[in-house]
Amino acid sequence: MAEFVKVAEIDEVPEGAGIMAQYGQTSVALFRVAGSFYAIDNTCPHAGGPLADGFLNGAEVTCPWHMWSFDVRSGACTFDPGLRVASYQVKVEGADILLAPAEAHGGERSGGQCSSDPRCASRSSTS
Ligand code: FES
Fold this sequence. Notes:
Layout: E1 5-9, E2 17-23, E3 26-33, E4 36-41, E5 55-57, E6 60-62, E7 69-71, E8 87-93, E9 96-101, H1 118-122
Antiparallel strand pairs: 1-9, 2-3, 3-4, 4-8, 5-6, 6-7, 8-9
């Protein structure tokens, strides 16, 4: 059974926004959407952009560097669901937000070039 670790307090995460938190050695992006909390890796698989600083629209965060977007509930890229960042189980205990690793997703890719979606191809440059 996964062990949950405190990473933040609920008052640190504004509604409709994200913050960067530390889970062990990993930077995670922690979001509050409609009162619920979600956590994914902070590092964008494209070129390492900080997803916690991205633009949040509902449950979709858009990387501030080159506009790739991810569903904060699953970590799935919104235009290539086969590409995803790691997501975490989130638990609230009192004022504390705790994380544990999510269940593994079968067949996922953790980074690199998206498939044939033209939006991804147009964003593949790091310039
Ligand atoms: S680093 Fe995130 S889209 Fe490029």
